[in-house]
């Protein structure tokens, strides 16, 4: 039996730095390990001693692409710890931020990172040169979705307006009807994204795993609910630390997680597998039109799931805002009372479930912080997928293997800067 | 005209400044037509460049690999631009700097054990390691500024750094001063250039573009104290993006 090892030294077209080590013994995989070598960030230390209202503004800097969901989840965890209740309007404004930023982040992943694999070009620069219409679509989607985040959150990135307990300013009636129009425009563009991603041929590959997402009964949202497990028993968000096993890996600056001792997937495909029937009508019609099969156990379908979610979350955005089209929104400035406490919150980020967990003393200073990002949770499942796909690739050339593995990992929309760059492959065969 | 070779590198950061760049509106394709992007760590498979006209460096230098890479970039680049507050000042990653001596303890707290990839106990601004020709502040950078800086450089013009506080932009935008509503703000001592979006949404400036060279720090501290903020928190507000105390 020949022994060969593969190394992908620098994974590209993902966010952050990671390396992949694969060792084969003939047709069987001896080892498939991902190492994240993004420098350690130590956020859980840097947050300590900070005042409760400064914690979200520090922790939102964990990630530049999902800063919105870090902000919202962090704020929710602070509020859960301090026992702060907020208005339905504030919850809705945060949902809107998540809807728009989901469209924004999915666009970035699908066009700047994933599309090149399927359009047969090297990278987004080539898309910009050869597929001008595709590039224009991506830029329009980015512009409009980030514009919505800016209108509601104050800035397109690292929103400032979304605070513990309230929003510093709320959109006027005229702005609300403007944003509804923008969500409608985004929806039209998102439907084109589904058309594009439905036209691609995805590698045939299935690998059933555990799928976890934040979900509520009869709803498909990102903002609140318990942790649901596809075909299994879920758990309450506050029990995450008991339910999920997080471990430090010597080779990696990211900590990896398992559920029930096994890898699991979180993100758009997990959400769709769990709550797909509650997608908006337009999104479900597209599933029917293109005969997509969900639940799906194919990792490459994450791309399709993301495109469908874009349509769905535009519909959610419109639905949420229409409640306020006539009555408008009210400025709020609730008085907060501080008390010592502990709180956990979870929201679904574009690439999966995000947990923030804090403790505060009676002066509102943070004494404990734990943050679990989606990519950290998905790494074990990437390794699990690689073990499964390798035997079918092994007779190919090294370059081809590397490319397939990168596509596979890329499908997860990994954000290795939040889990603490891209693929280095070390392949031994 | 030969297109200038432009490269983009990432050190330790949230990478948000690059996402801000990617959403730099409709002008982005136009800028791209006029430059030759040789390296973009986030998008290309292979590093291609061996010399650059302009190199953008994002993020703080927070380990040996970062330090090596910025030195290599400096050797290959005509102009180096520190891209964003992390690269200019250390930024949010530098919040760990005051605890430099406790590095081993907090590493253990976060990871529980040793790991293979070592990090410095401090996160440095790029200029601490190499000469930097221009600094673009902001957490995140302003997308408008990227287009302007690249345009100026294409024209062989030195980009203009704003040397006035955020307050000037609030006045220009007609934004009501937050102090008037009892909201303490870092605008008076913070570099402008962002077009003051935070005060426009009635949120105090928190100083993300870094300390103004001639800021009146004593007076700002008095103002903040007058709004009931304790000295310790004022110290945090003054050092949130630099990791060090501002002594002026």
What does it look like?
The complex is a heterodimer of chains A (429) and B (248). Chain A has 429 residues and is α+β, with helices and mostly antiparallel strands. Helix content of chain A is 44%, strand content 19%. The radius of gyration of chain A is 21 Å and the shape is globular. A five-stranded parallel beta sheet of chain B has the order 2-1-3-4-5. The mean pLDDT of chain B is 88. Chain B is α/β, with parallel strands linked by helices and 248 residues long. Chains A and B meet through α1, α4, α5 and α6 of A and α1, α2, α5 and α8 of B.
List its salient traits.
heterodimer, A: alpha+beta, three-stranded mixed β-sheet, globular, B: alpha/beta, 2 domains, 34% helix
Using the coordinates above, name the CATH class of the largest domain in chain B: Alpha Beta
CATH architecture of the largest domain in chain B: 3-Layer(aba) Sandwich
Strand residue percentage of chain B: 5-15%
Oligomer classification: heterodimer
Number of strands of chain B: 5
Helix content of chain A: 40-55%
Number of strands of chain A: 14
Percent strand of chain A equals 15-25%
Mean pLDDT of chain A: 90
- What is the annotated CATH architecture of chain A? Orthogonal Bundle
Report the CATH C-level class of chain A: Mainly Alpha
Which strand order does the major sheet of chain B show? 2-1-3-4-5
Distance separating the two termini of chain B: 47 Å
Structural class per helix/strand content of chain A? alpha+beta
Unreliable residue runs of chain B: none
What fold name stands as the CATH topology of the largest domain in chain B? Rossmann fold
Bin the helical content of chain B: 25-40%
Question: What name goes with the CATH superfamily of the largest domain in chain B?
Answer: NADH:ubiquinone oxidoreductase-like, 20kDa subunit
